[in-house]
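Narrative of activities, Objective 1.

The group set out to show that a structural description can be obtained from nothing but a protein's sequence at a throughput compatible with the screening campaign. Below is one input-output pair from the validation batch, recorded exactly as produced.
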Amino acid sequence: MKRPLLKPEDIYLREILFEIRQVGNVMRVTAIDPGSGLEVITIGDPTADSKVLERIAARKLKYVIAKRRNEQMSRR
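Output recorded for this entry:
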């Protein structure tokens, strides 16, 4: 029997570290899961609120974690 796939909203992260900096005419947002050391980068609008940029980066981080876990489960 196949296991159901994890979705990004199924992932709970106790802590996420963010780094936001302007690079040229965009904002570069790095989100890091300190537990696994996994890091993702997103690019955003420099006029956007920092909380919006963090939310987008956190969603991408959860997506990548869910994808990796699904890949690991499918190999078993």
